[in-house]
Structures are given as C-alpha cells and as structure tokens.
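Worked example (supplementary).
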Amino acid sequence: MANIEDLKEEAKKLLREGKVKYIIGYGAGTNGWPAAPLFIKKHEDVDKLVWNPTCVHNLVRFLVDEKRRKARQKQPDKRPVGIMVKGCDSRAVVVLLQEKFIDRNDVYILGVSCGKTGVVDDAKLSKKMGGKKAKKVEVDAQDRFVVTTEEGTVEAAAEELLAERCLECKANFPVIYDVLSGEKTKRPLDKPFGSLEKIESLSAAERWSFWKEQLDKCIRCYACRSACPMCYCDECVVDSINLAVTADTTADEKAQRIRWVQRSAESSENLIYHLVRAIHLAGRCIDCGECERACPLDIPLRFLNKKLEKEAKELFGYEVGFDSALPALISSFRDEDPQDFIR
Amino acid sequence: MAEDYEPRIVAFLCKWCSSAGSDLAGVSRMEYPPNVVPIQVMCSGSVSPLYIFSAFNKGADGVLVSGCHPGDCHYIKGNYYARRRLNLVKKLLEYIGLEPQRFQMSWISAAEGTKYTQIIKNFVKELKPLGPQTKMRRNP
Amino acid sequence: MKRTGVFICHCGINIAGTVDVKNVAEQLAKHPGVVHSEDYVYMCSDPGQNLIEQAIKEKKLDGVVVACCSPNLHETTFRNAAKRAGLNSFRCEIANIREQCSWVHKDKPKATQKATKIARSAIEKVRQNESLDALSVPVTRRALVVGGGISGIQAALDLGNSGFEVILVERNPSIGGHMIQLSETFPTLDCSQCILTPKMVEVSRHPKIKLMTYSEVQDVSGYVGNFKVKILKKPTYVDPAKCTLCDECTKVCPIVVPNEFDLGLTGRRAIYIPFPQAIPASYTLDDKNCPDPFTTIACGKCADVCKPKAIDYDQQPEIIEEEVGVIIVATGFDLYDKENMAEYGFGKYADVLDGLQFERLCSASGPTQGQILRPSDHQEPKEVVFIQCSGSRDPENHCAYCSKICCMYTVKHAMLYKHHVHDGQAYIFYIDIRSGGKGYEEFVQRAVEEDGVVYLRGKVSKVFEENGKIIVWGVDTLTGKPIEIAADMVVLAQAMRPSTGAQELAKKLKLALDKDGFLAEAHPKLRPVESVTSGMFLAGAAQAPKDIPEAVAQASGAAAKAIAILSQERLFHSPTVAKVISNLCTGCGMCVAVCPYDALALKEGKVEVNEVLCEGCGTCTATCLRSAIQVKNLTQQQVAEMINACLGG
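After joint prediction of all chains, the assembly is encoded as:
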C-alpha cells in the first residue's frame, strides 16, 4: 500500500500555514483493531497518521458533522477541513458536491490509493486469525496481506481477507483529490456487481425468505443511517425522531411529519424502513460498506443498495460518484429509459 | 386461501390522462371488478415511492400507477421521471421477493377507457391466486 | 376541531341504482370529524346546491365533500356553492362515485363499500385542505416581438392596433425577413415587395410600435406578465434621422463583401442599405468588415462625402432594458446550407443555386435586374433543372420532415423562368406534389398546361459540373428510365431550417425546441401558437415550415393569445402550487432540475417557488428525498391518509 510520507508532509504544511481547520485522517486504533479515525489540529501530531489495510472507515461522514457544527456557529471558521479519502470515499465526496451539500472549497482532499489491494474485512480477518489478535496488517511487495500478531506473522492472499466490496472496486484511487499519495494503478474490475449474483439467482420465494430472516433481526438502532455520509437529512422521512426544530418551525410543521412507519421493530416496519432507505440512496450510494460494518446484527445491507446501484447502471447508464456536475439519478431521464415493465 | 378472497388494489391515476380514461370507461358503461379504489394525483411524476410502500404497508394486495403516454404528459415530462423512479421501485420490490404482479404501472390516455378496464380486470385475475399480501402489511 | 359535511348524490338512478346511497350517508355520518351527512337525488340542481349552502351556514362546516359524478363536471359548481355560503372554495372536494364506481360495477354491496371508501378518502383529503385564494400578479401591458419578418410584422401590427405598446426587435438592419427577398409569391404571383412594404411602412409609422432594428435580445428574466428584457442595440454608425439615402457613401467605400441580401450572388460595400425599401430607411456601416483587416481605423471616406453629416464613427452599442408582459418569438427560417449536399456538389458550383438565390435572380431589383442569368458566365440558361425535397424527407442523411413550401415555390420558379426565358426548358424532379392550399393545385396545373414545365418523378442521385454544363443524373420512376440532363443551371429546393441563432435565443428564453430544432408548441393540435412557457408565444416558420398565409394566420393567433393576457390588469393563477418547508430543505437542487416550468430556484441554499409559474404537478414532491416540498391541498400527508381510507383502514 502507499507510503504516505508525501501526504504527511502536505498535511504538516497545511496545518502550519493554517490553510485547514483540522485534518480528519486515520490513526492507530485501540481495542484490537489497528486503525481508527483521528482528528489532528497541530502539525506536530501529523506523524500519528497511518495508512494500512485496516483503514476501512469512510471518514466523509465527519464532513456532515462539520457542516452541522458550522451551521450552529455565529461566525464559523470558513477554512476547509483536510480529509483522508480512499477511492470509494472520494466518490462520497463527489456525491456531496453534486448535491451542493458541501462546497469544493470546504474540503482539502488528501487522497490515498489502495493500489492493487484494498482494505480487510474484520470478520474474514478474525476467522483467519483463529482467536489471535492482529496487531498490524500490511501489504507486501507481492500484494499479499501480512498480519502481525503477538506470536508472529500470518500471510494470506488478498482475496482471502479483502472486504467484499474491494472485490468489486470501481475506484481504487480517489477520483477527486488535492494531493494523491500512491499510484494510479489501473485495476481490472473483477466482476462488476458479482456479489449480487447469488441472491439474484434465488427464486422469489427464496429471496423473500432470505430478506425476511435478515431484516427481522433489525432493532431499528439506525446505526446504518448514522454511519452513512449520504444520510445527512436533518430529519429522516421514514421515521422522524430528530425533528430539527428551529425558531421558525410552526406547529403545523411539527404536526405534519408523517409517520410512514411505526417505531416498533416489527417485520413489516423494518422492511419499509430499509426499502425507503434503499430507494433514497439510489444513485447516491457509493458502496463504502459502512452501513453493513456498523450494523450490530450483521444484516447484509450492502446487498440492498448494491442492487439499485446495478440497476442504475444497467437500466439508465448511470455511474454514481464520478462526476459532480452530473444531475442526480432521479432528477434526470433519458428518452430511451426502458419501459418494458409498463403495460 | 379463502374462496371469497378479493384482492384490494389502490390505483394512483394521473388527473389528465389515466383518471380521464377511467372516467371514459364509466361513461361507456364498461364493467370491471370493484377491487380497485382510485386516488387521483395531478401527475404520475408526483407518485412518491413512499406511496407505494405505504399502500402495501396498509394492506394493499396490489398497487397500480398509471399516467400519460411518454410525450403526452400534461405537465410535459413528469411521466419520464415516474418511469425511471418507479422502475427502480419495481426492481427493488421484486428483489426482496415481493411477487412482481403486485406492483404495476401503465400508460393510459384519456381515450383509453377500454384499456383501463382491461388493465383492472387482468390485475384482479393475476392477484387472486397469490392470496393476500402479507409481506409488507402491518399487523397481518 | 374539524366539521365536515358530506353530501351523497343519487344522480337519479345513475348512482343510486348501484350504490346504496342511504347506507353510504349513514356510514359516513359516523366518520371522525363528520358533523353532517345527507343524500339527495340531484346535488347539482338548485335545491341540491341549496342543501350544501344551508348546511355550511347552519352547521358551521369547515369542509365539504360531495360524492357524485366526475369532478370534471361539477367541481366548479359545488365550489361556487361553498363560496356563496361563505366557505373557501378550496375546502370543497369531490368524490367520484359515478364514472369510477356506480357506472362500472354491478354488485351492489361491493359498489356501496367502494363508494364509501372513495368518499372517506375525499373526507380525509378535505380535512387537511388549506383555505386558498387564486394568486394574482400585475401585468405589464406591453409586448415584445422578436423577429421582423412577415410573422413578426403581422403580430406587431395586431398588437399595436389593439392599443398595446409593442417593441419589435430585429437583428438585421431592416425588417422584412425573407419575404422581402422574394420576387413573386405563389399562387397569385403577387409582387412580394409590393404587398409587404405597405405593412413595413405601417410598422415604422405606428404610434404604438417601437422598432429596434440591428438589435438582439440578450437576456430575459421574469415570468408571464412581468418579463424583464435586455436588448443590445448594435451601432449602425449612421443617424437615421439625418440619412437621406443619397447613396454617395457607397460610391467611395473601398471595401467589398458578399451581399447577404442577394445570398452572395453580388457584393456590397461596408456601408450599405440592404435593399432600397429598407425600414428604417437608413444606411448601415458594417463594423465587422470596416475597417478592413489590415488597418485599425476607418478610412473616413464615407463621412467625407456625407452632406447631411449622418455618419458618426463614435456610436456605441447600447443595452436597453425593457419591461413587457408577453413575448412573441417569430425568428423565422433559413435554408439548409447547400454545403451539406454531398450529392449535389457541396454548394461549390456557381450555377447550382438554392431557392432563395433563384428568387433573387428573378427579382427585378436583384443581382441581374430580373434576367435569369448563370452566375458563372452571365449567359441565359436554356435548360434548368429544379430538384425538390433537397435535404428534406431524408431521415438518414439530412432532415426527416417535409419543408411544406418547396413544391409550391419550385413550380413558381419554373413558371417565372419560363416567363423570362420563353425558349427555355424547365424540368422538375419530384417525389410528390404537395399543393394543399387555396389555389395551389390549380397553380401547379397551370405550370404544366400553360408553361410547359416538365415534371419527372424521381430523385436525383448526382449533380456535377462538366465542360461548363451541370450534369444531372436522375431517374424517371414512371417510365423506369434513368435520366441524364446536361443543364445550364440547377435549382435546389433546400429544406427549411430554423433561423441561425434561434437555438441560442431559445436557450436565453428557456423555450423548448422540438426534435428538429424548431420552437416547440404547447400542444401540436390544439395549442400551435403557445410555447410551454406561460406568456411566450410562437409565430411563423420558427415553429415549423409553413407558407406566408399560414405564417400570417399564426402571427395573428399569437397576437390574440398575447392580447388575452395583456387585456387583463391582473393575471389569475391556480393557488394549488408547491410550497417549501424551509427547515427541511438541504438545497440539493433535485427538485429544481425536474420542474418542467422552471418554477423553482435555489436562493442562498434553500429552494424558493415562483408561484405564478408553478402548475402544481407535484413532480418536485416525489423527487425530494426529505419531503421538504409539498403541493398545497395535495400534500403527501393527505395522500397517506387517502391511502389509508382507500384500504378501509
């Protein structure tokens, strides 16, 4: 993986010169998982930044918090925020730009390339380690993962430990950046949307069985919503538990929030919540996998959003998160949009 | 499933074309089963995915959305957005295993009273063997 | 506390025959919020309406549902009744239990159950209806006409004669368009300039018409009744008040450039008048060609000889801002360039002309004073081939559509040729003859019977020059034989295209174009002079190929539509428009992108609705991920309740 010394130098410069407010990056983790998000305000702390295959987090979510913070301040600091992004994360930045949620001047993008590999999946890693704690995960010159434990090192082929989404990676280096650390290696796309094949090949009844079982587990903790950078709505349409009441909110507005679903974690209500979320992410989800990673019940949420990502591509020729000048998927159409489903 | 099971269908009809087509079916005294209750919207483009999901959640066995033919939308292009948006809804519903016959979309013009009648008749016929919709229904 | 009144109509036996109306009224009386429920034989009758008015007053109803026939029939009737009783008309809703229930079902219990559901749905809707009043905006009672051809001229005159101020903007130095370039018009062979110049003079003298020639529309903002237009007035460097048309300036001007009026068949000077009858009657100094590329200052010769001192090299362009209530776009057409015709020589043969060029040859004030002469050697052509459908009706290579006028002007050209060159032979290659107007068919027959024009049914595959002749390879499909003609001149009936620059103007005005680049009409059958944008109208060939009588009719039609707006002091508009719930809006702009009427705009990160442009279609509401935009009186909250009611919940 890329050696980020050049990125660190740039980061130090930015902080020394006061060009950014702070930097959101990856630092050493605690609790057995090597990496964690790190917020750096002083240039002396930049050396704490790390870049390794355990940097799975999509830090772009913190830009949403930053915007909320600025909105509450009377005289906000208008300087940009520095942020480390992988290829997939950078596409989230593109979508936020597309939706004018942030301005290009609000971010200074420190891009890192995943080269020929990507990040590891913690479940796969645990399985491979068989109980031993991973202290360090690196990529060797042959693009194999090398995991250091207390008892030595374990090697594994990339496919064994790579996160599922890395196997379908569309952007192994950032599509938008101010500086880029690492090579712009062209990776042949293994099989776009290959992970969907298994579910799609099931019969309708089997698919229902699968999804009912998975979604019945849901406890409506909304971790998926909290982790997703695109779920930045102050009030979620499906379940308004967060009405952003300002001085201007009228009684009517407060009364007007519809309860499309009940709060109880019942089968039907969970299903509607997830369906609405999936539809609202159509053309916006860039498969960072955070929703699935955040879910305490291991619900395979990626498969819901990925399906619509695939349909966006196949039905409408729409690629998410590459061009911030593109209109949104649902606010555009083509004359040749398919209508074979219409009677 | 009970012999007397009658599917309940909610139909979102655009005012200028499909609802007018439905009116024409009435004026022409055509006959179709009473399973469908219509809701008139201004444009098929105004049909939100939330309506579809909510209809199923409240117990609809089938949902129909009908608008003007492409190129004829009274509001110029609402039906193109409906076409794209509802295609995604249909694919999503089928993906989670909902029977594909339950959600239908059609283009019915103000002159197509016959087509409206046929669409409803077919819809009821296709839904009967499937039985009541319980997958998305609250408290089935 | 809601107080809804429900009225179930029997409609004689139309409804009551299949729906148990008494039962429906009983059921609905128990519906939450319903304080009055009754049935009556004919609700739309006077006594029926009185029942509603009485109930509103006596029971202090704040919402009314009438379960009856389709709203298309009596929504207005019942809304007016509510209004008379002092209840806001938008608090009255119709439940269609006839066309969509009693007339299409036979099972009485089921039809009754369905009628109840339909009525419940309407009750839930009306309970959340706001009181609304029609929106009104003041109207600027002036009009803008863009384009000074026959259509623009006609529209301007109609508007001026109706008492409204009109600004007529034309980008050329004179009005007249293409019609003034014509020699004679079919089917009467009227002298085109003779019939057009009186109208042109009328425009110049009309007290209500402000003529701005050599000007172009730069920017348009606003909406119907309230447009703000910026017009660029280009400098002519000649004061029209002083110019006496003495023509001394052209005699000394050293610069010669192709004459656009004669379509390149002649040259003109840098200072020029496009044609003698130009309106305004003044010369123009073309600053694109003067000074010439090698010097940077004007030579000054024209100013030296100008006795009235009309020439002023210091004239500057001006941006003039005007406010108008309506805009009529009449930007006309241009012919499809001969350069596109690979089979016919790419436009590089001097003796292969297009229709307008031939028209200039025929014209007495044209490059050859009305003599038909070959541009190459000024000899009289003895054999002329006319090719119809050149560039039209050819979806694979050129334009798919028919340009409508070519059959007629080609036969006119053939006749004029024969009138000028008595011993000449005219051949017309055609696929069909489209002569549907008044006197058109007879005109065509006259050409064949009296003037000996030869019609050959077939396409021409190639035209090329050889030994001073133009060789035409065609076919006569009626005899099945290939034909080769060594012609002296070929005239191509080139397709009609929208005028150059029309696309850019359409963008500025946000006018839609159809698939061929012509201005899009609101409805091809019933609304041919209106654009989709409220307050903007279309006239003439800018909308589609057409002949002069159609252009004139359409111009008057557009003027009439414009007058309908201008004759009101205020414009009224349905109030069931979109509204934004600001604190939910994140400024993503998706709704702005989908609005067919450009009624939404982002201002400082939030969306604002222009209520006058909004038609209430609701596409924005389904697009918004946050439900931050709703349509008044058909909100998503209302639909949620209606869905519930429809399912019997």
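Two points are worth noting when inspecting this output. The first helix of chain B runs from residue 18 to 27. The helical segments of chain B are 18-27, 49-57, 78-95, 113-127.
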